[in-house]
Each structure stands twice: as C-alpha cells, then as structure tokens.
Amino acid sequence: MTALVEVEGLSKRFGRVRAVNQISFSVAEGEVFGFLGPNGAGKTTTIRILLGLLHADGGAAKIGGHDCWTAHSRAARLFGATLEQPALYGFLSGRENLRLFARTLGPVDEKQITELLGTVGMSERANDKVKRYSMGMRQRLALAQAMLGRPRLLVLDEPTNGLDPNGIHGLRILLRKLATEEGLTIFFSSHLLSEVEELCDRVVVLHRGEVKAAGPLSELMNFRGYKYRIDVSDVDRAIEVVRSIDGAKVEPGTIKDSIMVTSDQNVARIINHALVAAGIGVDQLVHEQRGLEDVYIELTGVTAGSPLSAPAGAAPAPAPAGVGS
Amino acid sequence: MFFGLVRNELQKTWRSRWIVFAVMAGIFVLIAGGLYIYYVASKSRWSPPAAIAWQTTVREDIANNQQQLDFLEQAKQNPGNGPKDFGPGPGPDLDNIIAQVQQQIDDDQYLLDHNIAPVQSFSITLAALFGLGGIVMFLLLRIFGWLASEQIAGERSDRTIAILLSRPMSRNQLLLAKAVASFLISLAVVVVTFLIIYAIWAFVQGSIGPLTGDVGVAVDGSKPLRGTNLFAMPIWLFVLMCLGGAMLGVLCVQGMSLVVSAVFGRWAAIGITMAFLFGAPLVSTVVGAILFAISQDPNRAHFLNYLFVNVLAPVSALTPVFGNGPAGPSGTGMSEFGFQVSVLAAWTVGFFIAAWLLFRRKQETG
Prior knowledge:
Strand content of chain B: under 5%
Mean pLDDT of chain A: 85
Distance between the termini of chain A: 19 Å
Largest sheet of chain A: 6 strands, mixed
Low-confidence stretches of chain A: 304-325
Structural class of chain B: mainly alpha
Helix content of chain A: 25-40%
Strand content of chain A: 25-35%
Number of helices of chain B: 10
Number of strands of chain B: 3
Shape of chain A: elongated
Helix content of chain B: 55-70%
Radius of gyration of chain A: 23 Å
Structural class of chain A: alpha/beta
CATH topology of the domain at 3-78 and 151-220 in chain A: Rossmann fold
Mean pLDDT of chain B: 88
Radius of gyration of chain B: 24 Å
CATH class of the domain at 3-78 and 151-220 in chain A: Alpha Beta
Strand order of the largest sheet of chain A: 6-7-8-3-9-10
Strand order of the largest sheet of chain B: 1-2-3
Oligomer: heterodimer
Order of helices and strands of chain B: HHHEHHHHEEHHH
Distance between the termini of chain B: 26 Å
C-alpha cells in the first residue's frame, strides 16, 4: 500500500522547548492509524504541522506527496480534520456551520450536507444553534465537518472527548465502516487506549517528542516476546519438551496443570507439535497477549489512566527492537 | 471559491454582531427623531421650510457682512465709542477682523460673479461634508476598527482559525476575504449613514437639491478665493471624492486592526486597537496644543498629520473652506485633503503589507 501520510525527521521547537524531535512515521492508504502519547508528547504539534497550522523547523511532513506547509492547499484537498475541542461557530446552526465550511471547498453540496448530518446522527438538531449543543453533539458535527468534500484522510484529534459510552461505540462503528467500506484512511489520536486497541491497525507511540514505538498493533503488543499458557496432562515432561525447543523459555511459577512459556518468536505451533509428538495431552494453548495499556506504560513510563501525564523523572523503556523506528 | 469565502465572512460578521448594527440603527432613529421634534417645536411647523436658492443665501451673507463691516469701520474711526467687544479702539485685532469680513464679502461676490455655488450650498454636499467627515466618521471608524480587530483574533480565541487554515485555501485568500468583507460591511454602513444624513439635510433645507451642476471648493482654505485657489467640480464627483476619502480612512483603520488581529487573541486585539484609536488622537491633540502654546504658530503642529490617526477622516479638511480670512488656520482645502489622502494611502498600504507578512507565517499553536 502507498503511504498517504509521510513524516520524515520532523522537528519543531518552541523557544527552548523541543516539542518534536526528528520523528518519522508513515500512514498507508486505507489504514486506521493510532497516534498515542501522554500530554506534552508532541502529538498535537505533529497534527498541527500536518494540518498546515505550524511550520516545522526541520524534516518533512507530506500528505499525498504534497508538503503540508509549502503546498498546503493541495495537501488539504485530501484530508478533513477535527481538533481536540470541536471548533464551530456557536451563533450558527449545525447545517449553517457545514455550509460555511463547505464553501471553503467550492460550491455547497446540500445533498452531501444532509447525508453527513444523518451519518453523524444530527439530522433532528441540524437547525438548532450550535451554542445549544452538548459537547458530544459538537464532536459529531465536527466529524461531519471533517468529512465534507469526501476526503481520503480523516485526522481526528481526541474525537471521543465529551462522548458518552454510546457515542464512543457509535463513533467506533462509524470509523470502522468508513475505513472498510469507503477505504478512508484514519489518523486517530486519542488517550483512550482501549479505543485505539479496538480500532487501529497500526500505532505510533510518542513520548517527549520522540517516537518510542511504531508498527502494527499485534507486533507492538508482543514486542517483549510471546507468552503462552499451556494446560497439559503432564507438567514435568512438558517442561522438558519445551526446554528442548529453540528460543522457548519456561517461566518459573507453574500453576497446577499449566506451564508459562515465553519466546521471542511465535512458536505456538512448534510447541504444540512437540508436545503432541511426545504423547503429552494439550488441553489448551493460550497466547497471553498483553494489553496496549501495559505496553504503553512500559514504553512511556506513564500511568495510562486519566489524565495522561509524564511524571518527572520517569524513565521509559528503550524502544523495542524491530518495532521502534 | 473566493466569493464563497467573502460570503462566509459577511455571514459571520452579520450573525455574530447584528446587535451592533441594530444599536447603530437605533441611534440614528433617535437622533433623526430628536432633530425633527426640535424642528417642530422651534419652528412650530410639521413640514419642511421653503427651499432657498444658493445665490439668495450668498447675497444675504454679503448684506450681513457689509452691515458688520460698516459697524466695524465706525468703531475703528470712533475709538472711544466703539463696541467693547472689539477692544478699546483701532488696533491689530480690529484691523484683522475687518480684513477677514472684507475677504468674506469679496469671496462671496467672486462666487456670485462666476456663478459657482459654494460647497455648502446643497443638501447632498452638506451631507457629504458632515456625514463622511467629522464626528460621524470619527465614531464609525472606531466601530469598524473594533469589528476588524476581531476578524482573525476572534477566530483564534474561538479556535475556529485552526479549522479554517486547515482547509484547502491559502492564507492570502483568507486574509483578502476578511479584508473585502470588512470593507463591504463598512461601505454599506457609511452609505446608509450618508443617505440618512442627506435625508435630514434635505428636510432642513426644504429640498433634496440638485445632483448635477458644479460646486466650488477652495484649494487652500486659509487664502482668498481667487483664480487658482478655487476648484470647481461636479456635485456627483465631489460626493464620490468625499466617499472615497472616507472609505480610505476606513480601509486604513481596518489595515491597522488586521495587523493587531493577526497576532493577538480577541480581547487583546480589541483592547490594543481601541486604545490606539482613542488614545493616539488625544495624545497628539495635547502635543499640538503644547506646540501652539509655545510657538503661537498654528502650522507648527501640522507635522502631526503624518500620523494616520489624525487624518483618518480627510473630508474634515474640506469643511471650513469658506469664511476663513487671511489669518484663518491652515490645514483646510483641497490641497490639504490631497495631502491627507496621500498620507492615508501610504499608511494603508503599509498596514496591509504588515498584516499579510504577519499572517502568512503566523504559527497557530492553539
């Protein structure tokens, strides 16, 4: 797949503060991409550079091959964006807001506006003034605004802010639908790790302006290796068999009829085959995948609760080999 | 797409600030109503007075001035019996006043002889002088400055600037659309204001007056009206010239406001713009007064007119064209109007270039 978003060696300083330092990543067309990091990690700075609001001090940020600053108009034809706090005109109605933003793209397509209002579930309140909307309604209207002109890329900065659980669920379904049915690329920045975990194909973890990890979610969650729980009929013999397999390591603390095995590689099939060949009954072989939250804490040294903030002196884990960039 | 952007800006200004225009309309209604009530009470009539030809007014002026001149000559020849108002007897003050009155008679006679109507003869030219200069424009310019200072700064405070700038248009287009929209709104307000004042003058004069024909304007208001010091121009051209001068002032204020707006948030931008538009004329008036007190020369403070805040309403320079004797103040007439327009044009261009340079590279950090 071709890269729709390319970020190469991007750097940005604000006075003496280094907001983003030599970061590189790319987002492929049709991908749902998660952008993670604690407050102050450089996420918003990176997004603002992509949107053409900030000028990078070094490196390049391109969308569809167009530089986000020098060829902003051409790059901006390809994306729609929502920001952390939905930016809308409170004195206009929802429909008028969409008309106003549609005029920045060319002639207003009333049919598309009506469709988008329906898509985000705002048809009934479309003619009310936005200042009377709840935060969740504003988020939904902002999403409709981002989808005006049928962009190839949606850049969503904390789109779940202010949404209730139903709203978050609805948004997740909508974004999945947009990605799978319409092939839309989604750049999803969020501090809700569970949402990223459920939605994204690939993620970048940013910390203190640097990329700590980047890659497919499955790889990222196994960057410390694979961990299996195997329920067997004969624990002692199973330990012997597993120890004879290259790269497989039996963890101490075996419980009842189970053994815990770790490996740098995915050796599930090999273990299963060896155990069965040795006449050991395998009741269950479970890949004990760690959650994104565990990985995130390990990478950034930040507790992944709310709010996400980097504790002073927190020492994140080194970038995972083969995953980090 | 550009017209769509201008339309957006017009819609935003109207929908967010319609109360300002409603208040302005209310003030106009109150002023017009008050003036009408005063007219009815003082003249004991409901309808406008009979119209008077400008020649009749000028002849009446000559007769009144002649009467005053005779009185002054008499006072000069009989110093002991002279009116106390003019001092103890003949002296430089009385001679000066006599010379001024004689000059007014000569000026008026010159206009009659050459059939040139003085600029204040008609309702529409009076409306142009009063409505497109002086206190009316002083106040309107401050309102336009306030509205323009919010153009970018307000969007920044509301965070909508980020979404606008992320859209597929250049910053130049957005800035130009905002400038054009501001200008169109202020043009509409100025034209409506002018028409209301014209209607009031037409009522007071008893006639809407001619819209064709010529009016005479002094080139230098402090000098006698002779030959090259009188400039005759069509009425419509005079009105357009005044409108152009007024709108250049508006454009200059909007340029300055956009410079401030390109950098700051809403309240800072409004505060700085208002402080400058009200404070700077006050400071320069004080400076001018001090300079006059020291030098006793009215021209000594003329250099302050190189400051844009002092020439924002260049039509004001045309107002006291007639009746200024040889000792009248400088800084009036067509030449001064031209000077003020040139100064304004230079400032306006400078402000817009500055606004453009600031806005095109402004980092929107949120």
